[in-house]
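Suppose a colleague, Dr. K., hands you the sequence of a protein chain of 257 amino acids and asks what its three-dimensional shape might be. Before reaching for any lab equipment, you can write down a predicted structure in C-alpha cell form. Begin with the sequence itself:
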Amino acid sequence: MKMIKQKEMKKILYISLYLFGLTLWSQTPAELFKQGNDAYKKGDYQTAIAQYEKALQTGKQSEELYFNLGNAYYKLNQIAPSIYYYEKALQLNPGDEDVQYNLSLANQMKLDKIDQVPENLLLRFKKKINRLFPFDVWAWLAIISAFAGLVVFVLFLFTSNGNTKRMSFVAMLISLFLLLFTWYNAHYGNQLASQRYGIIFVDQVDILTEPNLTADKVTTLHEGTKVKLLRSDGDWQLIKLPDGKKAWIPKTEVKAL
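The predicted structure, expressed as C-alpha cells, is then:
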C-alpha cells in the first residue's frame, strides 16, 4: 500500500506541475507585458526583464516592448542589452525621438568612442526623411499614391468640363510626384533595413585581420559597440566599424540585431 500511495502522490505532483505549466504558458503577451510594466514601476527591473522576455518568447514584437526592455537594462547599467533593445525598437520605428534620446544616453556609457565616417549633407537629409516612417508605411503610401493617380487619370480622360480636366491634370502630376517620392523612400528604406548590424555583447574582444586566433589584432572593442555585419566564415564574422575599418570577430561575441 505504501508504494501505491507514493505513486499516487507522484501522479498528483506531475499533474499539478503540468497544470501550473499550462497556466504560465497560457499567459498572453499583453498580460506578460503588463506584469513587466508593474514590476518596472516598483523598481524591480530583474522581474520586469524576465516578464518582457517571456512576452518576446511568445513571438510578440513591438516598439514598446523593446523600448521597455532597453529601459530596464539601462536601469541595471547593463550597456550592451540596453543598446541592443533600443536599436531593435528603432528598427520598428526609426523616427521615435524618445528611443533615439535614450539610445544616446546608453551610448554615452560605452567605452569605445569610434569616429564615424562623415556623411554628406544629402545623405543625412535622405536618412532623416526616410526615418519619418517605417518601410512598410512608405510602401503603403506608394500604393495609395498610385491608386489616387489612377483615379484622377480616369477622371481626366472621361471628363468634358474644362476646369475639372485642368484640376485632374494637376492632381495627376501631384500623384505622380508622390508616387515617385514614396516609392523611392520605400526602396531606400528596404535597402537600409537589409543592412545587418550587431552589438558587441562581451566586456571586451580583440578584432583581427583574419578569421583565426593567430592573426594580427586590429583593435579592441568593448560591450555595446555597434558594428556592421558583412559576411561570415565558419565561426567567424567579418564586421565593419563606424570609421570604415573591417576586421574579424568570433560570432559568439556579437549579437545580430
